[in-house]
Amino acid sequence: MGKRTWLTVSLVLALLVAAVGVALAHPEHSDGATDSEDGARDLHQHGDAAGHLPATKSDNVDLVSKLRLENVVPEKIADVGVHKGYAYLAAWGSVTCEDNGVHVVDVRNPAAPREVNFVRSKVGSYPGEGIQTVSITTPKFSGDILVSNNEKCNENTGYGGVNLYDVTSPTRVLPLFEGAGDTDGANGVKRKSANSTHSAFAWDAGDKAYVVIVDNVETTDVDILDITDPRAPKQIADLDLAQKFPQILQSAPDNLNEVFHHDVVVKQIDGKQVMMVSYWDGGYVALNVDDPANPTYIADTDFTNPDPELLQQAGKTERPEGNAHQSEFTLDNRYVLTSDEDFSPNGTELFTDDNPTRVAVSQGSGTKQLMDGQTLAGTTVYVGRACAGDDAVPATPTSGGPYVAVATRGLCAFTEKVANVERAGGYAGVVIVNREGACDGFGMSVTGNIPAVSLDRKNGFGLFDREAAYDDAACRAGTDTLEGSLIPGVNIGDRGDVVNVRAFFDSWGYVHLYKNGAGKLQELDTYAIPEAMDPAKSTGFGDLSVHEVAASEKDANLAYFSYYSGGLRVVKIRNEELAEVGRFIDEGGSNFWGVQVFGQGGKEYVAASDRDFGLYIFEYTGQ
Q1: Chain centroid offset of residue 204 CA
Q2: Where are the domain boundaries for CATH 3.50.30.30 in the chain?
Q3: Which of 121, 211, 359, 602 could cross-link to 125 by cystine, CB 3.0-4.6 Å?
Q4: Which residues contact 566 (CB under 8 A, 6 or more apart)?
Q5: Rounded to an integer, what distance in angstroms lies between the CA atom of residue 93 and that of residue 37?
Q6: Under 8 Å CB-to-CB from 144, ≥6 apart: which residues?
Q7: What is the pLDDT of residues 29-42, one digit of tens each?
């Protein structure tokens, strides 16, 4: 991959393709295209009886309290962390660019939490995944530091990087440094101009302290800063793990090709500082960071092929999707629990009669949908841009067939293209190929009465055996012109390959259990809520993907998962297998993003951040 311009805002929805029935990410272009940037998913849970799972309130989980936070609108709340009796919850800016920052809640009495402060982000910035508070003691600073990431909802005013705040007194938060991060190479750490950052994790290493951050922009996306003096952070590492440790890459299946840093945790294990990096399709990567400027490889994971949980619960054989999102070590460090995030339970892929390689494609949002097991097949016919004022879309040939129209993006909206193909008559569906200046896969906000899928430009050339004419650098340097839209050397009405588009159910994201160790970690078991493996619940029930895991700090075999509209789930490790032992879904539905354990009065509690509401506090009551 080159520089990741396709992730200019965030990494959360990197797998936008194949998002059948799920609201597409923003922003939307004038023609109806949607990029894989972060955005609201428009799947509000509370108050919509048709869009969530039934409530379950008494399954070994007691609701201790819940608190609606100030200025909350649906999908406003993101991650949660707890430290020394105070919870910190991110108010993120993907829904609205106002009131972004970190809510501070006094949870010393878990039955009666109180919001006591709000740490406002710089205008145009917002936190999300990277909320953590850590105590550090160095020659330069002694106290508690809140770390929050910066993504941007306003490119002109927003900060990137991470923020460091002194929260030794949580009701009187003092900024130490705002906007620390990489600008270009390992000598960054400049305010405001730092690259957008998706997550962060800080740790105390004796006389030194560090924070690792997720760089959204560069392929050298594991950035480590020395924060021994948090008022003057210094960047010490700028790493591309796929380049530095190529053994983490998985050669098969060939769809695991979105390899980037998404989240991270650091824990001292057997006297060593161990970093576990969630590296999306690269899996989970364990590094020794005793010398953070020069990490060394310990272990990593591969994704089992075919997908084991889908095969076990649904009886379907599909490739794994990757999506390594977040992880934690168990209390005794024997195991690693991981959560793969996936908002696209329905996949769509395209292949041709002379190229069996499957390419992920995205169905139009409002066109006739191909559902699990259905296909669109036919000989391709090139129809140009299919816009008013261009050459008319030709009618299908009178013999042979079926036929699938191939249009190219440019000039007019997708809805107009599909309507003109329908008006010509006889086409079973349409494939819309990207133009110059865009090139990659994309989503489509479009209406129509026939199936429509979008395809990247290179593979669009391949439909007419013109792969050799594709120049990626020229494509990326081009613009939305007539010449930059049409496929060179192909005339309107020309026939191409026989194309086959297949729709399939491949489930929501779920949980893995690995045995901790060195080299390739052994996968022991997987776990998913049954609803996430049910094709009938691929739409209409909210997001049924796991999001985060929090390991118990009292029981080495206990863990808690935030499962979006699947609620809070409690899982036990028994004989190296995962068993659900508790759950909670509120009346009107739940929408949990973050989960974090904390102790108070000798008891273990669980804080969960509900995206539409605020803070929930639970206690597990099972044995």
Answers
A1: 28
A2: 14-39+346-504
A3: 121
A4: 53, 529, 531, 532, 543, 544, 545, 546, 585, 590
A5: 13
A6: 83, 84, 133, 134, 135, 166, 167, 168, 170
A7: 778 887 643 333 33
